[in-house]
Write a structure and sequence with these properties.
The chain has a single domain, classed as Sufe protein. Chain: A, CATH 3.90.1010. The protein has 5 helices and 4 strands. It has helices spanning 3-18, 66-79, 84-99, 105-110, 124-141; strands spanning 31-37, 42-51, 54-63, 148-149. A 4-stranded mixed β-sheet has the order 3-2-1-4, with helices on one face. It is globular.
């Protein structure tokens, strides 16, 4: 990845950390889940309003590092309006991206703004930070009853 692109990606992550989108509790949520990364202390509560298998609204609250918060912010912005099955497929692609399994540049570009997390694969400890909100999303979509932990 060239230096200019890396700097742009860093700016996007810092922007979403500083001003996270959808950072709110949804009182009318009909799906929710909690996530926790004991390695660095990241915590997230994710709230979904799902109607007819579509994510109508989404919000999150919690605390964590810049990568964790930015990932949750971008994720909530992107999955709003998606069908559950499309959100689950997007989780798979995102997970492949941050774990280094997705390397084709065209496929990475198809992820749009999520491509900013491509560099995370070079820092294994940060993969859990970036993927915490996504694992929590999967739990919420499946009516998660237990806390999602990155250490399980």
């Amino acid at each position: 990845m060239d230096e200019e692109l890396r700097e742009l990606y860093q700016q996007v992550i810092l922007d979403h950390n500083k001003s996270p989108r959808n950072f709110k509790k949804l009182e009318n949520a009909n799906h929710s889940a909690e996530g926790y990364n004991p390695l660095c202390g990241d915590k997230i509560n994710l709230y979904l309003v799902i109607e007819d298998d579509v994510v109508k609204d989404v919000g999150f609250q919690g605390s964590g590092c810049a990568i964790s918060k930015a990932s949750a912010s971008l994720m909530t912005s992107i999955v709003k309006g998606m069908k559950k099955e499309d959100a689950e497929r997007l989780f798979e692609k995102f997970h492949d991206l941050v774990t280094g399994k997705l390397t084709d540049e065209n496929e990475i570009e198809e992820l749009g703004k999520l491509a900013v997390f491509a560099g995370v694969r070079d820092f294994p400890a940060r993969v859990k930070c970036a993927s915490l909100s996504w694992h929590t999303l999967i739990s919420a979509l499946q009516d998660g009853k237990k806390v999602v932990s990155t250490e399980e």
